Amino acid sequence: MAIYMGLDSSTQSLTAVVIEIDGDERRVLDQRSIRFDEELASYGCRNGVLTHSDPLVAHSNPVMWAEALDRLFAVFAAEGQFPLDKLRAIAGSGQQHGSVYFNSEADPRLSSLDPARELVGQLEGIFSRPTSPIWMDSSTLSECEAITAAVGGSGELASLTGSKAFERFTGPQIRKFHQEDPEGYDATSRIHLVSSFMATLLAGTDAPIDPGDGAGMNLMNLREKDWAPAALEATAPGLSGKLPAIEESWSIIGSLSNYWVERYGFSPATRVVCWSGDNPCSLVGVGLVKPGRLAISLGTSDTLFGYLPEPRVDPAMEGHTFGAPTGDYMSLICFKNGSLAREKICKASGLDWNGFSAALRETPPGNGGAILLPWFEPEITPNVQEPGARRYGLSEDEGPANVRAVVEAQMMTMAIHSRWMGVKPESIYATGGAACNKEILHIMAQVFDAAVYQFEVGNSAALGAALRAYHAAEMETRGSSSWEEVIAGFAEPVAESRIAPEPELVALYDELKEIYETCENHALNGGPDPMEKIDAFARR
Ligand code: XUL
Questions:
Q1: Where are the domains of the chain?
Q2: Per-residue confidence at 293, pLDDT binned at 50, 70, 90?
Q3: What pLDDT is recorded for position 218?
Q4: Distance 105 CA to ligand 1 centre (A)
Q5: I need a labelling partner for 65 at 20 to 30 A (CA). Which of 106, 296, 312, 512 fits?
Q6: Looking at the whole model, is its pTM more than 0.90?
Q7: Whose CA is nearest to atom 8 of ligand 1?
Q8: Is there an atom of ligand 1 within 6 Å of 336 CB?
Q9: Ligand 1 nearest-atom number relative to CA 168
Q10: Is it true that the peptide bond before 530 is cis, omega within 30 degrees of 0?
Q11: Element (H, E) at 343
């Protein structure tokens, strides 16, 4: 018997999924989370983000992520749900794009942590930038423009790195740091992603970045899976010396450092596997190791993604191409107004989640044409810098109608902005916190004209990381490992959870999608007023 752990260091929590694999016998042993706002409240974060007067700025505290790791392992050691000394390998998933800045103190400190003392106190003085910009930050428009110009245009940057310049991507964030605090930048010896930072804590040695998360930086050559000198030069001076190596997702960094072994009783033989981004890990966690299907993750961000055998770049450049943990590629499109937008409407309507579901059941599909553009926060897709929801044929105080409007909007915007992927899926795999809500998934099935399935393990990022740990350990000892075998028994949709599209509703949403696009165009580009179309829809 062997045990594998996958961790997911996400925006609002740190989660572990622990699995056991003994030939064909496979089961989940434990799943556990530390929620930052509740359990680490002293860091003063809201939804995992430090409050800031500028709505475009979103930073978090890397020390909080480290403390969550220490606490989670303390819980495992105290509760004895599974034998820690039987853990064969551990891998992880991190919220993408966020960056952590070390000074030269970090290396010696992290390689000689004292197991008798808590981790947090030992991290003091190792950061050259005290806070970490995360994926929700959209404050780097001018940096994006400068980088784009320096590499020869958006098309050039997108075909080189898989994405045009995006505000949340690590390159523009690094450029901003260099511009605003050149001394801090000079004092930086290493810039990690959230994923490679957490892996560094586990291994006690400088961890690499994998092509899945590396592609979210605007700095990596997507085809060569190595740093792209032109992008590095366009970003900040001396950057190549500050970045970790890029290595395959299944590379082994080393074994768990003495700190974890001595403090909690893990085996010194436990292998630490390269971490990846949450979306690449989710790709594995929902079993998308071949083309033809799409997954939608309903988390803090809503993302829609699929496996790609070859890189393919979005001509409208709203989406991204990342490396996949299989060594191939994945397409992805990200929407910032995900769970926080649903929560906002839920609260504003005075409902709990049961009430939210009831409102979806009680309101008519299509909402009589009422449309909400749910840009409570600055939005990534489409690019919206000025936050604020826009409503058409809908007033703020109509609670249930707003509930339906937010969910229909989220599904329609995903369908509209993912057309470039060129996949007309027959099935969609739903994951993330809100994927347990059947009413939301019913709307998804109608808007996408596809059957929607749920999974037993809701946290596909942590499960995907655990499966990657197994894959990497097998690669190390046997030299090969088939992905089909790796995911078997875990990353398979629950057949009974199937929600089918209904032709009448599919036709209704085809019509509503057109109206939604008109609303978007009206709000963003001053296009034609959609009210006539909305009224006609309402009268039908
Ligand atoms: C993807 C993205 C988010 C984060 C946080 O590009 O920005 O999905 O990974 O989950």
A1: 2-280, 287-336+422-497, 339-419+503-539
A2: confident
A3: 98
A4: 30
A5: 296
A6: yes
A7: 301
A8: no
A9: 7
A10: no
A11: helix 339-348
